[in-house]
Amino acid sequence: MKLSQNARIVLEKRYLKRDGDGNIAESPEDMFRRVADTVAAAENAYNPPGKAACMAEEFYGMMTGFEFLPNSPTLLNAGRELGLLSSCFVLPVADSVAGIAKAVGEAMVIHQYGGGTGFAFDAIRPEDDPVKSGHKVAGGPVRLVGVFSEAANYIKQAGVRCGCNSASLPVNHPDILKFIRAKDEGSHSANFGINIALTDDFIRKVRCGADYELVNPHTGRVSGSLSAAEVFYRIARSSWETGDPGIMFIDRINKDNPTPRLGEFITTDPCGGQPLLPYESATLGTINLSGMLLKEGNCCRVDYPRLGGLIAKAVRFLDDVLEVNRYPSAEVEKAARATRKIGLGFMGFAEMLIKLGIRYDSAEAVSAADELMFTPYRQRRNFLREFL
User: Fold this and answer.
1) Cα–Cα distance between 185 and 189 in angstroms, integer?
2) Beta-carbon contacts of residue 216 (< 8 Å; ≥ 6 apart)
3) For residue 22, which of 64, 198, 354, 379 sits 20 to 30 Å off, Cα-Cα?
4) Do 199 and 231 contact (CB within 8 A), yes or no?
5) Number of domains composing the chain
6) Is 273 among the domain residues?
7) Which range of residues forms the domain containing residue 358?
């Protein structure tokens, strides 16, 4: 297995198993074997004897050939004591001290195991809203960013990195202007992103220059109104100045919700790659497109049959992860097994285009991307036929 010096440095620093004295106790090949054998063990429950060993070789080959790689927690924890193989989680945050404390505690466990967390602050009442306990007032969602950020800094992900978090707030929350500027002063951790959930109605009002209503989530009552265009401008300006907030088109996201009867999406995983319901998690993997080419004379073309076969194996790998995963809580395990969310993406697209002689900013590149992204959907149908 050929590795660059930089690749070996990263593997030794972050991923390879160490003994009690801190010395490296496995080679890169050992790491991939550990992952392949652990994940393929899921095949024993549904297939004849020998299938697990066969799939372990398939999984090992696609990882050591750098055709496919799973997310970091799988490389770190497969076959080891922690055993958490998912990278992304969404946790609910209730509007109470107990609810907030529960979410913080759950997030700290997930970070300790190597995962990242996304939160929706939809239910959190505005700052200075009255609370039942005496004459106190609510801290509001902006202060919660600090609370969750400090918890993330306290726990280092599997001893490798600080916990990754994101928090979202609906655009009609009374504290929306404060939330937009939550990271202006640099007081919150760089590993905590914030996002605004925009609705179709809000965008329509931006376009026509209308005001929109703010709604207190605790009372359900309208508490004021703002210019939609002004709020949109402030979001864009803050994002340009600080990198935050991001935006989510929440109505559009829910149009593609595969399980609407279980609830609506209100936020995404911390990297924004996958919308998830409360307590859902996602196991992620990536296919290297630069290795999916056939050379024909002086030209190259995409080897779609090979790519399709690799996608099928990668999906099987990620689905097997759901079976052997060690979940951080009963709620997370129940949600994961109910909807079986996985995420499969591509890397090396720009390098692939260079080898194909296609300009990145061309219509031909867009067509190539369309064809590539349709390939997983075809393979998904084939994968489902095997089990239905």
Assistant:
1) 11
2) 125, 126, 129, 174, 222, 223
3) 64
4) no
5) 2
6) no
7) 5-84+283-387
Q: Under a CB-based contact definition with an 8 Å cutoff, are residues 212 and 203 in contact?
A: no
- Between CA 42 and CA 321 the distance in angstroms is 8
Report the alpha-carbon distance of residue 37 to residue 292 in Å, rounded: 25
Whose tokens are 């990271």? That residue is 183
Whether the model pTM is above 0.85: yes
pLDDT at residue number 38: 97
For tokens 């991001």, name the residue. Answer: 246
87 Cβ contact list (under 8 Å, min separation 6): 71, 72, 73, 74, 114, 115, 116, 269, 282, 283, 284
Using CB atoms within 10 A of its CB, is residue 45 exposed (0-12), middle (13-18) or buried (19+)? exposed
Query: Which candidate, 140, 129, 152, 137, places its Cα nearest to that of 93?
Result: 140
Torsion of CA 10, 11, 15, 20, to 10 degrees: -110
Distance CA 51, CA 358 (A): 41
CATH number of the domain bearing residue 189: 3.20.70.20
How many residues in the chain?
388
Question: At residue 165, what is the residue type?
Answer: N
Rounded distance, CA 107 to CA 117, Å? Answer: 6
Say yes or no to pLDDT of 13 above 80: yes
List, for residues 250-305, the tens digit of each pLDDT value.
999 999 999 999 999 999 998 888 999 999 999 999 999 999 999 888 888 999 99
Q: Would you say residue 348 lies in a domain?
A: yes
Cα 40 to Cα 321: distance, rounded to the nearest angstrom: 8
Residue 29 phi, psi (nearest 5): -65, -40
